[in-house]
Amino acid sequence: MSSSGSGNQVRASHILIKHEGSRRKASWKDPEGRVISATTRDAAVSQLKALREDIVSGKAKFDEVASRYSDCSSAKRGGDLGPFGRGQMQKPFETATFALEIGEISDIVDTDSGVHIIMRTG
């Protein structure tokens, strides 16, 4: 069911939590980057693990959590990044997404942007 026919495109949603090591220390919900600059990677990972637990256990919906907590501008689309192919995303993000089954949620993925959980949607 690949939209490109060759199986080298995926579609995914993600939740990004930025931290003091992130390349850009600002986001739509923290334009000054104050919270982000004061957040350690460990704290970001802990928050993300708790959010993932809520999603996996059915307490929360991925898109609702993304729209509230994700530091990516995709938050307003429930974390949806749309379809993408290889070479379009940071390598760890791409590798994790292509390894997922549709509907599956990744463990914590580290990139220069911060820490993510990814749900493959297509």
Detail the topology: elements first, then pairings.
Layout: E1 9-17, H1 34-37, H2 41-56, H3 62-69, E2 80-85, H4 91-99, E3 109-111, E4 114-120
Antiparallel strand pairs: 1-2, 1-4, 3-4
Keywords: Isomerase, Rotamase
Domain PpiC: 7-122
Function: Prolyl cis/trans isomerase with specificity for phospho-Ser-Pro bonds.
Which properties best describe this structure?
122 residues, alpha+beta, Chitinase A, domain 3, four-stranded antiparallel β-sheet, disordered N terminus, PPIase_PpiC_CS, Peptidyl-prolyl cis-trans isomerase, rotamase
CATH classification, class level: Alpha Beta
H/I helix tally:
4
Number of domains: 1
Query: Which descriptor suits the 3D outline?
Result: globular
The appropriate CATH architecture is: Roll
Overall helicity: 25-40%
Order of helices and strands: EHHHEHEE
* % residues in beta strands: 15-25%
First-residue to last-residue Cα separation: 8 Å
Which strands sit side by side, in order, in the main sheet? 2-1-4-3
**Structural class, judged by helices and strands?**
alpha+beta
What is the radius of gyration computed over CA atoms, rounded to a whole number of angstroms?
A: 14 Å
Instruction: Describe the main β-sheet briefly.
Output: 4 strands, antiparallel
What low-confidence regions span 5 or more consecutive residues with pLDDT below 50?
Answer: 1-6
The CATH topology is given as: Chitinase A, domain 3
Mean pLDDT: 95
Region (Disordered): 1-33
Function: Prolyl cis/trans isomerase with specificity for phospho-Ser-Pro bonds.
InterPro entries: PPIase_dom_sf, PPIase_Pin1, PPIase_PpiC, PPIase_PpiC_CS
Catalytic activity: [protein]-peptidylproline (omega=180) = [protein]-peptidylproline (omega=0)
